[in-house]
User: Fold these one by one.
Assistant:
Number 1:
Amino acid sequence: MRHLLIILSFLLILSFPLFGEDKTCYVSVTSSEEFNQTLLSNISISAISQYLKNVKPFPPSGLSGKGHCIYEVTATLDGNKTFVTLQGNELNSFGDATIVGTDGFQEAILRSLYRSQRDKRELICSDYPKILEECGGVVRKKKKKEVVKLSSPKKVPLEETKKKPIKVTKKKKGVCYVEPCDWLKTSSDRKPRKREKNWVGTLFECIVGCKKNVKYWDEGGNEFDENMNLITK
């Protein structure tokens, strides 16, 4: 009988968890569509395990029964701000950040832990000195896309080509108009001959393209041969 009691006592001890054994805790993350759910879950598990207790990702199949240790993380956006609430075993806090995306979530959950875990603030600031403003870091703001303005091309004035006016000379039928015919020139450029015989006004000499036997003519339209004899029409 004595041996039976010892065996029963031993079985009872084995059937209960050892005194002080930690219960497994899980992290459940809920967020809007703007966030990457996988990254948020990994960041939450890392931060909570680092400053609270070791946790595991919430199983996809769920948990049966009651009394489970679950840390619930909720991330929401409000304009250009990120808000994170952290609820769990004797824990209910929130954090915010003035940036969005994964960086905004990391800053917000660290701020939530910083506010709720007073004894861990020095450790948090030691690990992330440049993220939280409370730790002396610079507030990170969303970078605006720089718009590069292209300067308009300078207008280069084009020099106007100065064209010399073309002088058009009225042509007379049967008269040569190839230089150096004297009658192509103005009256001031012509070579006048002094009146020596029977011509009228100034006598002009034909150089190229002249009529047959015509060497000279005068202002009266009279034609002369090379000996300055009047050619009778």
Number 2:
Amino acid sequence: MLDPHFRCLRCWQAPRPQQAPATPTLASPTPDVSKQRALLDQYCVVCHNQKLKTANLLLDQLDLAQIGEHPEIGEKVVRKLRAGMMPPSGMPRPDFATRESLITWMEKELDSHSRTYLPAPGIHRMNRVEYNNVVRDLLALEVDASKFLPSDDSTHGFDNIAGALTMSPALMEAYLSAAARSAGWLSAM
């Protein structure tokens, strides 16, 4: 029987304090959102609305209080404003300070709601020291991986940085060969 205090690390979660469920509150838009909405209505919604659908961008329906839920739209607006492409020439444009305040506000709102995207690093291999330690810990077998595996690349003096520990077909063969030799020694014991 397992010790009742033992937990699988993957399944373990620290106890969380009991919290009352959050109740949604309907608040009126903040003055800052209202100010930015007025700017969009004055300079952008003239073309980008449900009726005209210019560039398939419906800014009349964009809820600025929830701009973080539609970052692709907000980013597009910021890019066009920053490049000076919108409003187009011949149309009324806000003065420089007003345009910059709208851009800055939108960027801050988008940044505050952004999520970090960290793609999976791909295959991460062990360096020789890690390989020695794993074989020793799992199989109780002392091996010298330097006899079977090539030296590890070093980045800034470290040999365990994931980006430097790439896997090639030749290196995969070396690891498989080292594993076969370790298994052979283990079966000979």
Number 3:
Amino acid sequence: MVGVDEPFQGRAATLAERRKSTDAWQKFGAADAKKHYPVNIEETTTAGVRTDIITPLEMPAANRNRVFINLHGGGLILIQVL
């Protein structure tokens, strides 16, 4: 699997390495999810923070004036046990 499972030669990953690894893992998961939930994913930056704007390819008329905002608290850290 790409991403968080990749080894760091027996040492703790730097923040930059952890971000790169997590971004790769996210892209892998997003590609798989798009097979089941067809959406357009636009990568952008909002107030200096990398964000994704995800828009369904098909949307019921009743939902066209709605928005869902998911703000992750950043507390998720995956640890590799050596």
